[in-house]
Design goal:
Blueprint: E1 2-6, H1 9-26, E2 31-34, H2 38-54, E3 62-65, E4 67-69, H3 80-87, E5 99-100, H4 109-122, E6 128-131, E7 153-156, H5 159-165, E8 178-181, H6 184-188, E9 192-197, H7 203-211, E10 229-234, H8 244-253
Parallel strand pairs: 1-10, 2-3, 2-6, 3-5, 6-9, 9-10
Antiparallel strand pairs: 4-8, 7-8
Helix pairs in contact: 1-2
The protein binds 2-amino-2-deoxy-6-O-phosphono-alpha-D-glucopyranose.
């Protein structure tokens, strides 16, 4: 795992957007794993800008989102399908048929989860998985005690997650209590993972996720097992990291990061 610390949330998002854009340019057929949440809004805005300004090409790219609420129609304003259409897909030249989210309205949810896994496999697996982190440390909706080898399945949302996301609903009571999410095991199979976290309210959980012991109580700790995982944070989210100076030194000195230092 590598931790890249940027001065502020905008610079952190710029770095993540550049990593995605570089991967897409290197492989136009990229299979991209996507995440939702407030933190990602900046990344999608920057990718749209890169498409409009520099012609960043999404035409051959395929996407798989991490998760979707159970019981929301795709056009429901709080569904993740709606989020993705509005924030990214509508504004770039992606073929909507190449964009995938679990269907939270499927009559047989278990079958839907199995089909989603099969679809990822048929696409050749995920090349680059973008991740946010919930305040309690979940990736996707892998709530506390999610098995580290879990696959796509239905999860009951924890009170912490409900508290965090309910304000996004006009009537907080309308927030679904369950979601379909890729499993921790599914996420760990992605060839590369990039987690983005910004803001002081993520400082504690980032320190536990990056430097704490691996535990199914905090599914993000499983990323410590991943061969190629980058955690991008702003200074505020990095505030509790004990090794921050060392991580800064790596970013400033490792040749791999040279092209990303001026962002
Ligand atoms: C939701 C999503 C997660 C996301 C998290 C963080 O719970 N299922 O994938 O990482 O929110 O959201 P935010 O960026 O709004 O803090």
């Amino acid at each position: 795992m590598e931790v890249l610390i940027r001065p502020d949330a905008e610079a952190a998002a710029r770095l993540v957007a550049r990593i995605i854009a570089d991967e897409l340019r290197a492989n136009p057929h990229l299979v991209l794993g996507l995440a939702t949440g407030r933190t990602m809004e900046r990344v999608y805005r920057l990718l749209v800008e890169m498409h409009v300004r520099d012609g960043l090409d999404f035409s051959l790219c395929r996407t798989f989102n991490l998760d979707e609420y159970v019981g929301l129609e795709p056009d429901h304003p709080q569904s993740y399908r709606h989020y993705m259409n509005e924030r990214l897909f509508k504004h770039v030249n992606i073929d909507l048929r190449n964009t995938h989210l679990p269907n939270g309205m499927a009559p047989d949810l278990d079958a839907e989860c199995a089909a989603y896994e099969a679809l990822i496999e048929r696409a050749g697996g995920i090349d680059l998985q973008l991740l946010g982190i919930g305040r309690a440390g979940h990736i996707g909706f892998n709530e506390p005690l999610s098995a580290l080898m879990s696959r796509t399945r239905v999860k009951a949302l924890s009170p912490a997650t409900i508290e965090q996301n309910a304000p996004l609903f006009p009537d907080p009571a309308q927030m679904p209590r369950r979601a379909i999410t890729m499993g921790v095991g599914t996420i760990l199979e992605a060839r590369r993972c990039v987690l983005l976290a910004t803001g002081g309210e993520k400082a504690d959980i980032i320190a536990r996720a990056v430097e704490g012991p691996i535990t199914s109580m905090i599914s993000a700790t499983a990323l410590q097992l991943h061969r190629r995982c980058v955690v991008v944070v702003d200074e505020a989210a990095a505030a509790r990291l004990e090794g921050a100076d060392y991580y800064r030194w790596i970013f400033e000195n490792e040749p791999e990061w040279e092209p990303y230092r001026d962002l």
